[in-house]
Design brief:
The protein contains 13 helices and 15 strands. The protein has helices at 51-64, 76-92, 106-112, 114-119, 133-150, 165-176, 184-205, 222-235, 250-266, 287-298, 319-343, 361-367, 400-415; strands at 21-25, 28-32, 39-43, 68-72, 98-102, 122-125, 154-159, 213-218, 239-242, 272-273, 307-310, 351-355, 370-373, 383-387, 390-395. It holds the Pfam family GcpE_C.
Amino acid sequence: MNFQNEPVIAGRMQRKQTYGVTVKNGKNTVLIGQGAPVVVQSMTNTDTSDVEATARQVAELARAGSELVRLTVNTSEAAKAVPLIRDRLDSLGYDVPLAGDFHYNGHLLLTRFPDCARALSKYRINPGNVGQGAKKDAHFADMIAVACRYDKPVRIGVNWGSLDQGLLERLMNENAERRQPWPVQSVMYEALISSAIGSADRAVELGLGQDRIVLSCKVSGVQDLIAVYRELSRRCPYALHLGLTEAGVGSKGIVASVAALSVLLQEGIGDTIRISLTPGPGEARTKEIVVAQELLQTMGMRNFAPVVVSCPGCGRTSSGLFQKLANSTQDYLRAQMPLWKDRFPGVETMSVAVMGCIVNGPGESRHANIGISLPGNGELPAVPVFEDGEKKTTLRGENIEGQFQEIILKYVESHYGSKP
């Protein structure tokens, strides 16, 4: 075997430098772009005019880790509710910035309801549905004027399903005159990119700073999203919002979103992300936050909560026991993070291993900050626990779960700087 080659070294992501966009609410400032950590955001699915329900869901998303929450603002009633929602959240101690999602009538709502315009920390404009013909330019200009007046950043969000038909028709006609016409798919890509960059450049002409603009080009196909964002990133320095629109339900939506975003993030593309999942009936909206956080943490880009390493189980394992402990440990750590993140800085980098038998259990447990190796089929009913590579104790009895959580808590208290 030849060992003369260079050693294999893990790749390092080089983030593309983009303009830094500051999104503020009171003393809370979120920076998107300029090399800042990738921001996780989400969106409510309540009727915005229902102040209590919307404020409750925003608070739930903020507790789960959403650093920016978007609201639909589609009616006069919704616009009137926005400042009340903001006041309600502030009174409860949730200072998460709110973004207003505007389609069709945003120019009217932002100008007629200045309290709404002031209460929002960011506006989302879709250039494909701000109007037609001359009205399109006027309506877009009205919204940018409000953003300038109140010093609000704007996301110019182009969507595959609501593309500017006039622009698309013009590009199709130009393509037909080429000696070697592009594939229709490539023309669609160009329409998305041109709409986003052209709208951003127009906003700058109207007085909005380049550091007040975030761009997005949402599509629902994984390869389409990768192709569009690679070119969008190559052609402009604006901060970019990543997300696969209409990703789908359950595992399909998760896999599709992660497949697309992980490629782009690895290439240094993307400054803020949203995982757009269709929730099941009664399912919490917070699932998309967990997926976004786990994507960034798995890629080594951010830390949000201690990582639980666990084996999948096999014929050697008493699977019910270790599966239950792996799930309860992960739930315990996530439940504690709202209390721990301020009191014990750095705890989010901790790793915990829950292993199911003697084959890899002790070795994996030693690699983690805290590890437990459960007995497999036919193994002694003793459970060794390791801390930082050294065996600490052996657990026995009926309350392994409670004993293990107590060990985790003591480790956190002794290893991370406690703040009063």
